[in-house]
Amino acid sequence: MAAPPEVALTDLNGYWVMSKSLSDSLDPVLALQGINWLIRKVVSMATVTMHVIEFADENGTTNITIEQTATGGIKGETEIRKLDWSEVPHSSGVFGEMYNQSRWTGVGSSAESGGGGPLHPWLTEGWLEEKTAEEGKEHIQNWVVNEQSGWTAEQVWGFAEVNGERHHVRKFLVKKGEEEAKARMVYVWKGKNKE
User: Fold this and answer.
1) Which helix (H) or strand (E) covers residue 28, if one does?
2) pTM score
3) Low-confidence ranges of the chain (pLDDT < 70)
4) What confidence tens digit (pLDDT) does each residue in 78-111 have?
5) How far apart are CA 121 and CA 187, in angstroms?
6) Are 192 and 176 in contact (CB under 8 A)?
7) Fewer CB within 10 A of the terminal residue: the chain, N end or C end?
8) CB–CB of 112/120 below 8 Å?
């Protein structure tokens, strides 16, 4: 189901399912991250559901907790995003040890990559113009570093029109050395409560 207009980046609370038919293949991204072929095949067949819990802490900082479950025998993981650009460590059974940084951002010409310099043009294109509380804070940016495997992943979250419907979209750009791989993930809104 398309995301209703009242569902926004400032209130992602609820359940989302990644649409395999509307999303790009994750295989090139996972391959660059060093994930073996068998796990990549299982991931491509799995249905991933996210339960998103978004709130402001006592300092007014937006926090997003994402509880992921997947079919196909993939162990679910919980991700924590603190939108103050602080480094948050994360241990993943699939990706290993890494840290992420998250913040509100715009996607205009002044938007900066987590690795320095401007955001990659692909990350800035194709978004719906949505208003939030602050100008220039229409998207969420994540910067993930896995030092052991030698890759970085930059993500931009927002809403986009896909096949004539408004959906939550996350664009991923993974780099390892001079190589890069991209994927656009499209999420279907399932509602505030688990069905």
Assistant:
1) helix 27-32
2) 0.91
3) 72-75, 93-94, 132-136, 195
4) 889 999 999 998 877 667 788 999 999 988 878 8
5) 22
6) no
7) C
8) no
